[in-house]
Amino acid sequence: MAEHLLALTGADDLQALFGRHDQHLRKIEQALGVTVSIKDANQLRIGGEDVAVRRATTLFEDVLTVVRAGGPLRKEDLDYALRAVQDPRLIQLRQVYQARVEVPSKRRFVFPRTPGQKAYLDAMRSHDIVFGIGPAGTGKTFLAMAMAVENLTKGEISRIILTRPAVEAGEKLGFLPGDLAEKINPYLRPLYDALYEMLDVDMTQRYISRGIIEVAPLAFMRGRTLNDAFIILDEAQNTTPEQMKMFLTRLGFDAKAVITGDVTQVDLPPGRASGLIQVQTLLAKVSGIAFVGLTGSDVVRHELVQAIIQAYETSNHQDPPPAG
Fold first, then answer.
1. 302 in helix, strand or coil?
2. Could you give the CA distance from residue 129 to residue 310 in angstroms, rounded to a whole number?
């Protein structure tokens, strides 16, 4: 058995660590297998197995770092902190808070949840062109959108441009019913969905109507020079090399570009090369461009989703039940 004493600075520290009606404390003790008590007004005693005490100490120190810096401690923050001290794939709560992205919506902040996501945000803060490459669910588009909105609201750029290729590289939309807007809307919908997470609907529509935010298919970028803008090219694995070159050469003064994609999900016709695959070799040594690879370990899912995935993986090793 081990014991650790944690120094406190007053009643605010106790309130943050214990929570209302000690609900935080009970959850921490149960999840980590420790006992926590007040030794005196300025110290907390944490007892239990050595590993459990170290984890609890790290968690309490992280929570105090965030609270003392003026950050709110919500239920989901504590839940995340508990997972982070037990899962080495996740970054600690204090690192999450320090790397947060500020957005003008009810969520207020967007946080990275894994080392890969934090590296992605760090790259966007320090490079003018960033490639975020990885599977679905790793936050490629979501984090890029948050960074674009933060740059806009802080006055670092004057507009946001969001684009993606239609599912076919040649953007052959003629077979779809409706006018051009109706044809391309299904392909652009995910960008709107991410945008609405960062801004409320009314603000988004005002920005779009004033041209501060533009959402358009990649073909609309041809022949333009994009100055003082944050540009996101989504689903870039479905660009041809020619389209990728066209997009990258649109970048003007005081502009940033983030290109996202999953090279395992290329929807180009057989025989057509992916611009996203080619560009990794072509521009790998160009200074000022960052390539960030995200992996399955950067997918942070709801606990129930993780259980569902595990159940399906287990069932794949078993014979299916007889029909009827």
1. coil
2. 37
Residue 125, burial from CB neighbour count under 10 angstroms (0-12, 13-18, 19+): middle
Domain around 66: 2-85
Whether the per-residue pLDDT at 251 is higher than 90: the answer is yes
CA nearest neighbour of 105 among 142, 79, 78, 138? 142
319 Cα distance to chain centroid: 37
Residues 23 and 124 in one domain: no
- Cα–Cα distance between 182 and 118 in angstroms, integer? 36
Classify residue 314 as exposed, middle or buried by CB count within 10 Å of its CB (0-12, 13-18, 19+): exposed
Are 51 and 167 within one domain?
no
Nearest to 59 by CA among 106, 25, 103, 89: 25
Q: Are residues 185 and 294 in the same domain?
A: yes
Segments of 170-244 assigned E as strands: 213-217, 229-233
Cα 268 from chain centre: 26
Other C-beta atoms closer than 10 Å to the C-beta of 313 total 9
151 neighbors 181 (Cβ within 8 angstroms):
no
| Residues 154 and 291 grouped into a single domain | yes
Q: Do 168 and 65 fall within a single domain?
A: no
Residue in 73, 75, 108 with CA at minimum distance from that of residue 94: 73
What's the pLDDT score for residue 95?
Answer: 83
- If we measure between CA atoms, which residue out of 253, 238, 266, 263 comes closest to residue 163? 238
How many domains, the chain?
Answer: 2
d(CA 133, CA 276): 9
Considering the domain architecture, whether residues 43 and 110 belong to the same structural domain is answered as no
User: In this structure, are 189 and 219 located in the same domain?
Assistant: yes
For residue 251, what is the DSSP state? B
pTM, two decimals, is: 0.78
Contact between residue 89 and residue 105 where contact means Cβ atoms under 8 Å apart: no
How high is the pLDDT of residue 122?
A: 95
Domain of 275, CATH number, reads 3.40.50.300
Q: Is the pLDDT of residue 174 over 70?
A: no
- Residues 70/109, Cβ–Cβ less than 8 Å: no
